């Protein structure tokens, strides 16, 4: 069987997706400024950061900021929770506010999420998980999807059965991260194990975990039988990466610096200056790790310490243009 070409479109229910490389939802990473860059550089689909269903219903925390959309093609909103009634209400709120697709989070391994019996902890209670899925599907007319891991641990690999039941309940796409919850992000994702989910369902399947290169993308499709791939940590420090995997030309080194400057400004505008400075530091660190790995620690620390946005960008650009990459471009 020939592999699906990553540049070709596919569908989630009636919703058309322009290519087969999806940017993973990552809390604290894939906020609106990040998603805007990923979309503009060719990602097939971008997903909001995880939104706690009860927090959204109660209008608490950052839930409404995470729900916000602009013109980023299909608006896919990821919800998390452990109580069916809150998930149903949150799904209706999301759909009423422009969500084209609702994604259920059953994959997050973070202790603060699983400690509340949400995220991947739901895989330990398939009966509760199914009731939550059914409530969400029945609450909205838009497609509902499900993202999960292989299981809680190596002794409870139950993703195929949960996926089968989710499809029967009306879920229209499954995403599998090829690790258990107890693995967190250690070791290598098991791409072969995802195939057992492919064998259990007929809805589109997205494979996730350690997709960093075009070769990775081709291999995970071949080994899992999936229809599309999802890139997560591989996009940190290069928000254009999903588009590159889908076949779009990557930005030049000069364009990368322009992206960084505009990303920084967008974060300051989105969060406000003080909060924006804090949120931006991790992104600046990832950019430096990717594009200027040899920058001296003192120079990096000065970027992170500065509270003057102009000074931050000046130092950042100096770091990015001081290494071998800058010399190659000048030549």
UniProtKB/TrEMBL annotation:
Keywords: Flavoprotein, FMN, NADP, Nucleotide-binding, Oxidoreductase, RNA-binding, tRNA processing, tRNA-binding. It is an enzyme of class 1 (oxidoreductase). Gene3D superfamilies: Aldolase class I, Putative flavin oxidoreducatase, domain 2. GO terms for molecular function: flavin adenine dinucleotide binding; tRNA binding; tRNA dihydrouridine synthase activity. Residues 23-295 form the DUS-like FMN-binding domain. CDD domains: DUS_like_FMN. It catalyses: a 5,6-dihydrouridine in tRNA + NAD(+) = a uridine in tRNA + NADH + H(+); a 5,6-dihydrouridine in tRNA + NADP(+) = a uridine in tRNA + NADPH + H(+). Its cofactor is FMN. The keyword tRNA-binding applies. The active site is at residue 108. The keyword Cell inner membrane does not apply. This is tRNA-dihydrouridine synthase. It comes from Pseudorhizobium pelagicum.
């Amino acid at each position: 069987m020939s592999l699906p070409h990553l540049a070709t479109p596919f569908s989630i229910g009636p919703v058309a997706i322009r290519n087969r490389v999806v940017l993973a939802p990552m809390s604290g990473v894939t906020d609106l400024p990040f998603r805007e860059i990923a979309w503009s550089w060719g990602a097939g689909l971008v997903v909001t950061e995880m939104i706690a269903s009860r927090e959204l219903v109660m209008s608490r925390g950052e839930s409404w900021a995470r729900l916000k959309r602009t013109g980023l093609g299909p608006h896919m909103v990821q919800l998390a929770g452990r109580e069916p009634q809150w998930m149903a209400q949150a799904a209706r709120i999301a759909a009423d506010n422009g969500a084209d697709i609702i994604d259920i989070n059953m994959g997050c391994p973070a202790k603060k999420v699983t400690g509340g019996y949400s995220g991947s902890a739901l895989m330990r209670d398939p009966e509760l998980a199914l009731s939550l899925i059914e409530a969400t599907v029945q609450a909205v007319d838009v497609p509902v999807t499900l993202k999960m891991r292989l299981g809680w641990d190596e002794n409870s690999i139950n993703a195929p059965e949960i996926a089968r039941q989710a499809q029967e309940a009306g879920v229209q796409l499954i995403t599998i991260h090829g690790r258990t919850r107890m693995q967190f992000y250690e070791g290598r994702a098991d791409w072969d194990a995802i195939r057992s989910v492919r064998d259990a369902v007929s809805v589109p399947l997205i494979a996730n975990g350690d997709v960093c290169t075009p070769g990775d993308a081709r291999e995970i499709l071949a080994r899992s039988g999936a229809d599309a791939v999802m890139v997560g940590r591989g996009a940190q420090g290069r928000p254009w990466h999903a588009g590159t995997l889908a076949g779009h030309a990557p930005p030049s080194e000069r364009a990368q610096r322009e992206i960084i400057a505009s990303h920084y400004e967008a974060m300051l505008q989105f969060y406000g200056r003080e909060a924006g400075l804090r949120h931006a530091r991790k992104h600046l660190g990832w950019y430096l790790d990717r594009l200027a790995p040899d920058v001296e620690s003192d120079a990096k620390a000065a970027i992170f310490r500065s509270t003057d946005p102009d000074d931050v960008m000046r130092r950042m650009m100096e770091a990015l243009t001081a290494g071998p990459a800058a010399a190659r471009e000048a030549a």
